[in-house]
Backbone:
């Protein structure tokens, strides 16, 4: 079973981003081959060198653990990058870019889709 | 893929009681009980799936959803108490109600064992719910034909 996990929350301000990434890590530990798609404010999780608001875990550290957990397939939506004036070179991870019009095709490649 | 296993079920004559059109579901509840309409949708969908003869492997409460498992919530008398509804559904259908242990402990929802471990004054987990790891969600994802998640915010 492969699972696409869509993350649409900003890295800090709530536990949602961290909890969503935890699901990706656990699915991978259970050999579920998760892939991660960043959309909307979720793309902000990929900004390097952000300051850590004290009550939160550093999202960048969890993201860098993804590769160790064999979560190699990271996607980011082009329109979400545009919305924040970001380019792919600004991001902390190597990602694949998908345009909004092709999101449906991307989702269809996976058995399951969890949206956070 | 789910369709594929469904076809192979058709060929299994070994268990005649197994309805060949029934599917296995895993339900994820990420909305809190205060988000009435969403939280109620999660409950009603699960109930309907069971009524129609499908199997629900587990219901997994995560993020805001863990508050559903609090045994210390008091709901106004003229409002639905989702905790009680889930408990009754669990009793009626022998339904497994799993609550993410990390999220639950942060929300002050704890069973006797964890209360002792962290030297807390009391426990607060409602009956029929159990504290489990995220691994149970991953296992349910692996086994189910359909994964249905009811969202937060």
Residues:
């Amino acid at each position: 079973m492969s699972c696409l996990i869509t993350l649409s929350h900003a890295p800090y301000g709530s536990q949602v981003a961290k909890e969503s990434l935890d699901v990706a890590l656990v699915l991978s530990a259970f050999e579920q081959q998760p892939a991660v798609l960043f959309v909307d404010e979720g793309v902000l999780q990929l900004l390097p060198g952000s300051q850590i608001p004290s009550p939160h875990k550093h999202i960048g550290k969890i993201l860098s653990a993804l590769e160790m957990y064999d979560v190699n397939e990271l996607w980011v939506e082009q329109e979400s990058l545009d919305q924040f004036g970001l380019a792919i070179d600004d991001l902390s991870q190597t990602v694949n870019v998908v345009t909004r019009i092709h999101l449906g095709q991307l989702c269809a490649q996976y058995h399951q889709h969890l949206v956070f | 893929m789910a369709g594929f296993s469904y076809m192979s079920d058709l060929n299994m004559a070994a268990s005649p009681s197994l309805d060949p059109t029934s599917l296995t579901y895993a339900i994820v509840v990420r909305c809190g009980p205060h988000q009435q309409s969403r939280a109620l949708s999660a409950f009603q969908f699960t109930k309907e799936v069971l009524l129609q003869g499908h199997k629900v492997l587990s219901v997994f409460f995560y993020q805001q959803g863990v508050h559903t498992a609090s045994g210390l919530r008091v709901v106004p008398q003229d409002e639905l108490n989702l905790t009680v509804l889930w408990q009754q559904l669990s009793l009626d259908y022998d339904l497994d109600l799993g609550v993410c242990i990390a999220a639950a402990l942060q929300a002050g929802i704890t069973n006797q064992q964890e209360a002792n471990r962290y030297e807390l004054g009391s426990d607060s987990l409602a009956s029929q719910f159990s504290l489990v790891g995220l691994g149970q969600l991953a296992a349910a994802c692996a086994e189910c034909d359909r994964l249905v998640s009811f969202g937060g915010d």
In short: Chain A has a mean pLDDT of 91. Chain A has one domain: 3-115. Chain A touches chain B through 17 residues (CB under 8 Å).
